Amino acid sequence: MDSSPRKIIHIDMDAFYASVEQRDDPSLRGKPIAVGGGGPRGVVATASYEARKFGVRSAMPGARARRLCPDLLFVRPRFEVYRSVSAQVRAIFQRFTDIIQPLSLDEAYLDVTVNKPGWTSATRVAEEIRRLIQEETGLTASAGVSYNKLIAKLASDQNKPDGLCVVRPGEGAAFIAAMPVRRIHGVGPVTARRMQALGIETGADLRDRSLPFLQAHFGSPALFYYRAARGEDDRPVHERQERKSVSVEDTFFDDLVEKDALLAEIDRIAQSLWARIEKADAYGRTVVLKVKFADFRIITRSRSFAAPVRTPDLLAETGRALLCAQLPLRMGARLLGLGVHNLEAGGEVEQGVQLALSL
Questions:
Q1: Can you tell me which residues bind Mg(2+) (predicted)?
Q2: Exposure winner among 142, 176, 265, 302, fewest CB in 10 A?
Q3: Residues annotated as binding site?
Q4: 135 assigned to active site
Q5: Which residues are annotated as a binding site for Mg(2+)?
Q6: What are the pLDDT digits (tens) for 296-332?
Q7: Which residue of the set 21, 50, 107, 278 is catalytic?
Q8: Is the CB of residue 38 less than 8 Å from the CB of residue 56?
Q9: Distance (Å, rounded) from C-alpha 76 to C-alpha 83?
């Protein structure tokens, strides 16, 4: 590590959309609510902590959420309100630093190595930001404070909701060691299951594997996993970056051939993608289908519109149409993906390791 490590804060608003709704409607406070659609094709954008106790999660189909929590209340999203509150929070960040990398409406990285108040303690900065957010918006935020982005993001989730976690230089490797690999940002569910099949359950297990071993089993992302297990991440906080696309992919254990199974997966992927689009506030004019076959050959197909796709139904319908045009497949599909490109101005993106994450 550099003798003068960075001081990075990751701020994550607690159940942001749901918390805004509970703040603005006192009748919803203390109740399990989901922001999103509760219909057959609806999807949960976010859920209150009362709902999360039942297993309700973001990007979950509304019908499944209702089965898990019969008393769940669905609230129609008000993105204009969420954008307004997000701008309030961003203005608070700017009192402390101009080096801000928003990931979505409800989370951001801040580099406070050198900050406007001139404080030497990043923890003090994080505490003051959290205090101001609660005072000025009536909402809570959790914060992770550390010497790099990877650890700061993991730390912000450690003591949620309304929590603060500080991981100092020299403590990162031990912090990662005790963590299940599925929690490490950048390790998706499919990769986590592959790691578990190799006996890699925790960060400590991952750290014990050599780089050649990881490269043999995971290919190009191996170096990221190797360094993550040691608490290493040298990516800087970027002040603003233009998002070029939003996408979701899923890799299957068994190759899919049948039309019904393929279309069911596209519908599920479209639901997850829509939740990601809304969270990032990034709408695009081009819908792109990706298919990876059993022999690892990849094809992409796309359809563009005159205006951005702004409904989940149109997104799903376009994905299904693109897939149906390829049927019957010449061999089974091991991966399906759906994305939107040609985005409207205004979305930001987290750059770094590009991994095919399964949701």
A1: 12, 106
A2: 302
A3: 12, 106
A4: no
A5: 12, 106
A6: 889 999 999 998 999 989 999 999 999 999 999 989 9
A7: 107
A8: no
A9: 15
